[in-house]
């Protein structure tokens, strides 16, 4: 594509063409910095957009609810369970079916995270499947039943130095889990009637995006630290860049915003993207943030 | 995904179908009692208690081809018979109309308002028959009950499920292009900013609040790209037709409009004449003959028209041989007092021009009417 933008003296593509349009869903963009590949779902299919080669490919999998790059894997979640692929999505490594107590009453699974040798997958029943994974195999470990509403997102990260998982649900409840023991470390203060659609761990804070358009930062003890009236419409995804203390939020108001995260919060940059129901955002680590929109055949790269 | 998307899909699609049929029957100068019968029959088929009961069951959303079969049957549940190309065009209009409404919702719960706007309009269209109105009222009551039980998050799920159904549909509709509802490439145009929807959790963007022990200790402001475009918060009532905020789901075909200027129409011409209409409906037809017949419980609940003396063989054709006033009418001004609309003259004109109707899309037909 001839669309480039100058940034810090380098010419970088500001748009990547997508062979298939992303579906409308929470957090529908994942990125592998090592392979420079973007992953998203299109009507149950998992597609890969290779930023370097500007080519597209897809996984041999149907009925996928969500796919995410986690460490050395790409994990695609479907009704049959968690399907583990290599980072390229070319080699299917193994599949771990969901246990009956998780898959019963579930019609949708989403929220995928890995920490150490454990993976967490969320379900619409509110249950969370915990899997034990190694390089070439995975097995069911246990089912966590704490959330009372469908899971919207799960993330992992280092919260003030401690490895954690964070899970969020449709009722707005957010739980922080110790990654090793799976003990509950904190439950974040709930805003009644406000759905938490996306979570990230950034330094000492848990960053959460909500259907009300708010971005809220919470302390490790679960107390609310900062509330940003960030967007005018439902937030569909957030992303975090802990190394640079940044968070990004995208919503159906067609706006991308990048925030400086810390004891002081400020807007670093923002962009209005016309006619874009933004549905996924990722930091690339190259000084840009990538966004995709529902039914839109262009992935946009914006300077951070 | 959601298991509750079917009522929203079928009722909104049905509402769009009623709008187009109503307007076409009028434009064709079909006698009032006949056109009324068609609308009554179609509505009674769609709102029969058994159909509604099946519709309201938690279930996966139907495939595009199964859904099309339902509406093929509904359209033929009366004395009216449509040619395949007429049915294709009708379905394309229904598709893009509802897609526009779905995508334009400013809050997931607005989907309830869209559906209720359709339901109220259907009720009005069949108001001459108390028993039909009763059926529609019963369905409205069930639908309202369902909506009141759903959280905003569940509405968001339903909307995401429906969004997948309409993904990649880019059929260009002249009316929508003219009204800037649709971009020249067929994608739906969205509004920037606008009023904050009526929900207690919402506020206009701009504030950053700091907390300690649950209390605000400081507030700062930031400049959103939407500053200056956000309106006052709405305060309507979803369930009161007179106080509903949303205009989505109201009749797109009875809006005042001016004749479009000549500059616009070239842009409305599709770049590929391999008609987008044909492509989308072709795919549905290809799926129909698939080896594993799909379960379509709803389709099976729709009865046929039965024997009748009067038959309309082609809704969009020049057949009645009457005064032809409608057929010759090139008036493209549409006002609220049901004049022949933009679409009104299209099919008659086209059938006079001859040629294979499936090769053209509505954009071409519009241009011909406008005399370009």
Outline the secondary-structure elements:
The complex is a heterodimer of chains A (304) and B (372).
Chain A: E1 4-7, E2 10-13, E3 15-17, E4 30-32, E5 37-42, E6 45-50, E7 55-58, E8 64-70, E9 73-78, E10 81-86, E11 92-96, H1 100-103, E12 109-115, E13 118-123, E14 128-133, E15 138-144, E16 151-159, E17 162-169, E18 174-178, E19 184-187, E20 196-202, E21 205-210, E22 214-218, E23 224-229, E24 235-241, E25 246-251, E26 255-260, E27 266-272, E28 278-283, E29 288-293, E30 298-303
Antiparallel strand pairs in A: 1-2, 3-30, 4-5, 5-6, 6-7, 8-9, 9-10, 10-11, 12-13, 13-14, 14-15, 16-17, 17-18, 18-19, 20-21, 21-22, 22-23, 24-25, 25-26, 26-27, 28-29, 29-30
Chain B: H1 6-27, H2 32-46, H3 49-55, H4 64-75, H5 84-104, H6 110-125, H7 130-149, H8 152-166, H9 174-178, E1 194-195, E2 207-212, E3 215-221, E4 230-231, H10 264-268, H11 276-288, H12 297-300, H13 325-328, H14 342-353, H15 362-369
Parallel strand pairs in B: 1-4
Antiparallel strand pairs in B: 2-3
Protein architecture, described:
The complex is a heterodimer of chains A (304) and B (372). Chain A has one helix spanning 100-103; strands at residues 4-7, 10-13, 15-17, 30-32, 37-42, 45-50, 55-58, 64-70, 73-78, 81-86, 92-96, 109-115, 118-123, 128-133, 138-144, 151-159, 162-169, 174-178, 184-187, 196-202, 205-210, 214-218, 224-229, 235-241, 246-251, 255-260, 266-272, 278-283, 288-293, 298-303. The model of chain A is unreliable at 1-11 (pLDDT under 50). By secondary structure, chain A is mostly beta strands. Helix content of chain A is 1%, strand content 57%. With 372 residues, chain B is mainly alpha-helical. Chain B contains 15 helices and four strands. Chain B has helices at 6-27, 32-46, 49-55, 64-75, 84-104, 110-125, 130-149, 152-166, 174-178, 264-268, 276-288, 297-300, 325-328, 342-353, 362-369, and strands at 194-195, 207-212, 215-221, 230-231. In chain B, β2 and β3 form a beta hairpin. The longest helix of chain B is centred in the N-terminal third of the chain and has 22 residues, at 6-27. Classes of the chains: A mainly beta (304), B mainly alpha (372). At the A-B interface, β23 and β27 of A face α8 and β2 of B. β23 (224-229) of chain A pairs antiparallel with β2 of chain B, so a sheet runs across the interface.
């Amino acid at each position: 594509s001839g669309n480039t933008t100058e940034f810090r003296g380098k010419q970088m593509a500001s748009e990547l063409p997508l062979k298939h349009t992303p579906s409308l869903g929470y957090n529908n963009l994942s990125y592998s910095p090592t392979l420079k590949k973007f992953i998203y779902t299109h009507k149950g299919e998992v597609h890969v957009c290779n930023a370097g080669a500007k080519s597209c490919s897809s996984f041999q999998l149907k009925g996928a609810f969500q796919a995410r790059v986690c460490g050395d894997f790409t994990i695609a979640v479907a009704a049959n369970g968690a399907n583990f692929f290599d980072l390229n999505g070319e080699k299917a490594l193994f599949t771990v079916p969901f246990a009956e107590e998780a898959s019963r009453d579930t019609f949708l699974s989403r929220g995928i995270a890995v920490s150490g040798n454990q993976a967490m997958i969320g379900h619409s029943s509110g249950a969370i499947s915990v899997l034990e994974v190694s390089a070439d195999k995975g097995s069911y470990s246990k089912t966590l039943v704490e959330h009372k509403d469908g899971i919207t997102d799960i993330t992992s990260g280092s919260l003030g130095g401690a490895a954690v998982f964070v899970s969020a649900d449709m009722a707005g409840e957010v739980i922080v889990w110790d990654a090793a023991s799976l003990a509950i470390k904190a439950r974040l203060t709930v805003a009644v009637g406000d759905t938490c659609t996306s979570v990230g761990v950034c330094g000492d804070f848990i960053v959460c995006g909500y259907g009300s358009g708010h971005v809220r930062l919470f302390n490790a003890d679960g107390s609310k630290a900062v509330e940003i009236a960030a967007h005018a419409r439902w937030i569909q995804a957030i992303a975090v860049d802990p190394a640079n203390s940044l968070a990004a939020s995208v919503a159906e108001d067609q706006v991308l915003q990048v925030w400086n995260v810390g004891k002081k919060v400020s807007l670093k940059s923002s962009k209005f993207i016309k006619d874009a129901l933004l549905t996924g955002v990722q930091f690339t680590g190259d000084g840009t943030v990538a966004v995709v929109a529902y039914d839109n055949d262009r992935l946009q790269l914006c300077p951070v | 995904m959601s298991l509750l998307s079917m009522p929203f899909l079928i009722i909104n699609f049905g509402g769009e179908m009623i709008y187009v049929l109503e307007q076409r029957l009028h434009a064709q100068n079909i006698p009032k009692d006949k056109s009324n019968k068609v609308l009554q029959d179609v509505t009674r088929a769609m709102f029969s208690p058994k159909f509604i009961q099946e519709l309201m069951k938690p279930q996966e959303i139907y495939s595009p081809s199964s859904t099309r079969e339902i509406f093929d049957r509904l359209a033929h549940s009366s004395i009216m018979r449509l040619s395949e190309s007429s049915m294709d065009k009708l379905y394309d209009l229904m598709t893009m109309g509802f897609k526009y409404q779905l995508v334009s919702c400013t809050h997931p719960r607005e989907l309830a308002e869209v559906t209720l706007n359709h339901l109220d309009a259907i009720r009005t269209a069949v108001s001459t028959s108390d028993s039909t109105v009763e059926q529609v009222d019963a369905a409205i009551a069930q639908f309202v009950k369902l909506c009141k039980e759903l959280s905003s998050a569940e509405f968001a799920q339903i909307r995401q499920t429906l969004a997948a159904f309409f993904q990649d549909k880019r059929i260009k509709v002249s009316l929508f292009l003219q009204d800037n509802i649709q971009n020249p490439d067929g994608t739906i145009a969205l509004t920037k900013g606008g009023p904050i929807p009526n929900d207690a959790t919402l506020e206009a963007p701009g504030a950053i609040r700091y907390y300690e022990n649950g209390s605000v200790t400081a507030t700062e402001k930031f400049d959103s790209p939407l500053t200056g475009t956000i309106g006052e918060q709405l305060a309507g009532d979803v369930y009161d037709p007179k106080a509903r905020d949303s205009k989505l789901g109201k009749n797109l075909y009875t809006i005042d409009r001016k004749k479009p200027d000549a500059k616009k129409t070239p842009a409305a011409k599709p770049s590929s004449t391999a008609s987008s209409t044909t492509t989308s409906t072709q795919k549905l037809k290809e799926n129909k003959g698939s080896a594993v017949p799909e379960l379509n419980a709803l389709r099976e609940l729709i009865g046929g028209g039965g024997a009748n003396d009067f038959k309309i063989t082609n809704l969009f054709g020049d057949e009645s041989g009457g005064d032809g006033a409608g057929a010759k009418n090139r008036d493209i001004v549409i006002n609220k007092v049901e004049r022949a609309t933009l679409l009104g003259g299209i099919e008659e004109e086209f059938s006079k021009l001859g040629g294979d109707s499936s090769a053209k899309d509505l954009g071409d037909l519009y241009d011909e009417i406008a005399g370009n």
